[in-house]
Amino acid sequence: xxxxxxxxxxxxxxxxxxxxxxxxxxxxxxxxxxWYVQYPNRGxxxxxxxxxxxxxxxxSYGFEAEFNKSQTSFHLKKPSALVSDSALYFCxxxxxxxxxxxxFGPGTRLSVLP
Amino acid sequence: NxxxxxxxxxxxLKTGQSMTLLCAQDMNHEYxxxxxxxxxxxxxxxxxxxxxxxxxxxxxxxxxxxxRLKKQNFxxxxxxxxxxxxxxxFCASSDAGYGYTFGSGTRLTVV
Lengths: 114, 111
Prior knowledge:
The complex is a heterodimer. By secondary structure, chain A is mainly beta. Chain A is 0% helix and 53% strand. Chain A has strands spanning 3-5, 10-14, 19-21, 24-26, 31-38, 44-50, 56-58, 64-68, 73-78, 87-95, 103-104, 108-113. In chain A, strands 2, 5, 6, 10, 11 and 12 form a 6-stranded mixed sheet that branches. A 4-stranded antiparallel sheet of chain A has the order 3-9-8-7, with no helix packed on it. In chain A, strands 1-4 form a two-stranded antiparallel sheet. Chain A is globular, with a radius of gyration of 14 Å. By secondary structure, chain B is mainly β. In chain B, the strands form 2 sheets. In chain B, strands 2, 4, 5, 6, 9, 10 and 11 form a 7-stranded mixed sheet that branches. Helices cover 0% and strands 53% of the residues of chain B. The radius of gyration of chain B is 13 Å and the shape is globular. At the A-B interface, strand 5, strand 6 and strand 10 of A face strand 4, strand 5, strand 9 and strand 10 of B.
């Protein structure tokens, strides 16, 4: 079965510093990996995805993520954090052996301090 | 640009009451989903549909029913609401599983 772990409930970073939000996954087939962001009282918004190809994926708002097959990780990164990046971030995986459904991680709350 | 629309946005129910949440998408997506979001638990799949007239159970289906009579609509029903069903409900749709488009959510409180 597929599963996703986000080992940090909360990440705090100073504005202007680089940020990393961690995600590890477990699948039996090939993974399709996604990051979503949720701002207060809003739905989830798509940030980026890895389906195949280049391991470094660039997405919206300056975010990027690196697919590491050997470490089964898909960490979200940004070179310089903004206060407006403060939100709840979800990693999700779809295992191509298990149809079309996604499994979401529990979420990581990012706080960027001015 | 509508995308996925959920109604209502907020609702308060008394224990034992029933209600239906409506999700509508205008992207001609085959797949539609209902999730609930609870603090510290992320999103958990309630029911999903892989096409018009089909439905299937997800991770936490008990106490909920769904119907997909039209491709663009996916209804979530609570027959007899319980306080444990207090949550934020999200609908999503997908085309071939390459990413979801989410609605803005329905905040349900059962008292």
